[in-house]
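YM 10:42: RING-type domain-containing protein sequence, as discussed on the call
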Amino acid sequence: MDGERTCLICSREICSPDSAAHILPCSHAQWHESCIHQWLTRQRTCPLCRTPSQVAVVCCQDAAVDLEARALLARLTAALRRQGVAPGRLFAALSPQKAPLALEAAETALAIFGGSASAAHVNRAARLMDLNGSGWIEEADFQEAMERF
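YM 10:58: structure's back
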C-alpha cells in the first residue's frame, strides 16, 4: 500500500517517519528506533545488506540505558504479577477512555513507579512500550510489552 512502510527487523508497520530516522552509513533506514538499537547491540551490521556499521559503537554506549529501561519494565511487570493486576487493568487506570497513551503520559507513570530511575531510563522504557513507533502506546502495545518483560 502507498505510504505504508514495514520495519525490516520486526515486520511491524512504521507509523511515524521519525521512528525510522536512524540511517546507517549504507543509507538503509527502514526500521523502528528501538529495533535498530537492539539489532546493532547484537549484530553490528546493517540488517538489510550486512555492511559493518560503526554506529554500533555509539549504540553500545546507549546499551546501559537500554538495559536499565528494560529492567524498569521488568520490575513493573513483576509488580503487576505479584499484585495480581492484569496489564489491561493498569492501562485502563492510566487511560480510562482506553485511548492510546502519549509517550509523555507513560513516562510520568514510569517515573512515579521507577522512583530513582533516571529520565533517560524512563524515556527509553516508554519508547520500548511504543512497539509500532507511532509516538503513542495503544492498549495492545502495552499488554504485549508487559508480556515481553
